[in-house]
Amino acid sequence: MSRLITVAIHTYEKALSLRSILENEGIEVTLNNVNLEVPGFSSGVRVRIKEEDLPLALRIIENRELFSAPTSAATSSHTILVPVDMSENSFKAASVACDIAKKRRASIVLLYSYLDPYIAGNVQFTDTLTYDIGETGARELLVENAKKLVEHFTERLRAAMKRGEVPLVKFEYAVVEGVPEDAIIEYAKVNTPRLIVMGTRGADKKESDMIGSVTAEVLDEGRFTVLTVPEPVDISSSLTPHNILFFSNLDQNDILAIDTVYRLYGSEEAAVTIVHIPKKKRFSDTSADKALKRLSDYCRDNFKHYHFVSVPVNQADGDKEFAKLQAERHFDLIVVPNRRRNAFSRLFNPGLAHKILFQTDIPMLVIPV
Predict the structure, then answer these.
(1) Per-residue buried b or exposed e for 280-307, using 16+ beta carbons within 10 Å of the residue's own CB
(2) pLDDT by residue (tens digit) across 197-220?
(3) What is the DSSP string of 177-189?
(4) Distance of CA 84 to CAs 40, 113, 206, 291, 353, Å?
(5) For 74-119, how does the pLDDT look when each residue is reduced to its tens digit (9 = 90+)?
(6) Which of 331, 247, 245, 249 is nearest to 288 (CA)?
(7) Secondary structure of residue 232 in the 3-state scheme
(8) Are 63 and 199 in contact (CB under 8 A)?
(9) Would you say residue 133 has pLDDT above 50?
(10) Which helix (H) or strand (E) holds 48?
(11) Which of 117, 183, 175 is nearest to 150 (CA)?
């Protein structure tokens, strides 16, 4: 049996609230040291969980808003958001999302955003012209056409489910007005999906999108767990990764990020290569090697289905060493713990996830830390 450990000591009311939140995420909780019949006389309650559930419990506890009782918005955390633009790669992303949703007992939300060209007309042209545009019902027609496009997409997805080509899961769609990246970010802030799955173009086509990539903007926001599905990738390799490259920051967030991968893809066997690219002089070579070894040892003990190896990487030759590793091990998933950066930093010093997005055609899981 798994050992029980104490993750928090609270008053009776807060302990009940925390237990409700943890159990809502599938974590078994035991309360100790409390007079359950007369809880007002208790000085404290131990909240205890199984040791293997510790990484997920820590992720929940470190978010302050989770200490309040679950609201109606909490139910939306069991959804996977898939932004679509009706392209073939959007359909591929939706198929990957359905496979994950089936394993995680989640539902899918297909999000389509459209731009209203008549907003600019209201500003630039005369009152008479604006009135004429309104009279023609152009905006109503625009919304109607957007809904028809999404409905056609959903019918295609539903047909694929009936044929057994895509796992059968519950899904719905949402149509919103706005710039795609802004619409995705705002929708995710309000509805807090468990995961965002986004189709991306091939590396050879991303050069022209370097400034305005929708996926890059969502990654740079740094608040959401995002899985990218590049256009050239074989869809089967995105469903169950077997060779994973994990970029480590050498802090406790690494364990939380690995736990996210483990829970997302289940208990399938996989090889995980842990790489640390040093930043300035935070770690000496010796201390970084020791930290990598400790992280690998911990992961071997707690994530039994994964085989871990650690590889230190020289900052100056990072790109060359990454290419060499990819040629040797043929990674089918890259995992990047991602911190939110301010607008100035994002513009002049893009984050690692942003850089990798434009350099490779390997699916990437970006996890906020």
Answers:
(1) eeebeeeebeebbeebbeebeebbeebe
(2) 999 876 555 454 544 478 888 888
(3) ES-HHHHHHHHHH
(4) 52, 8, 18, 41, 21
(5) 344 689 999 999 999 999 999 999 999 988 889 999 999 988 665 4
(6) 249
(7) coil
(8) no
(9) no
(10) strand 45-50
(11) 175
Number of other residues whose CB lies within 10 A of the CB of residue 101:
25
Whether 262 and 272 have beta carbons less than 8 Å apart is answered as: no
Q: What is the mean pLDDT of residues 136-157?
A: 86
Block residue for tokens 């289940």: 266
What is the C-alpha separation between 305 and 171, in angstroms, rounded? Answer: 31
Backbone angles phi, psi at 269, to 5 degrees: -65, 135
State both tokens at 7.
């993750």
Does residue 87 contact residue 201 with C-beta atoms inside 8 Å?
Answer: no
- Rounded distance, CA 278 to CA 285, Å? 9
pLDDT tens readout for residues 296-306: 888 888 888 89
Tokens of 65: 């808003």
